[in-house]
Amino acid sequence: MSNLEALEAEIKKLSAKATQAKMDLHDLAEELPANWTSILSVAQQVHDAFDELERKREDLKAQEQEYGS
Description:
By secondary structure, the protein is mainly α. The chain is 86% helix and 0% strand. The mean pLDDT is 95.
């Protein structure tokens, strides 16, 4: 498996993780005011998941440009 293929596979997993985190936050919001004390930690998990996904997408874009040159 090439570096690009490995990175694409990792991005696919991170995308699923980010989507699940987003759904967890959505579910929490629907249940408010129950479990309101967990808002910050769940929101941080969503932020971290999307931050990591965005960084990997930027890495992929850079590698694609490098291989395309």
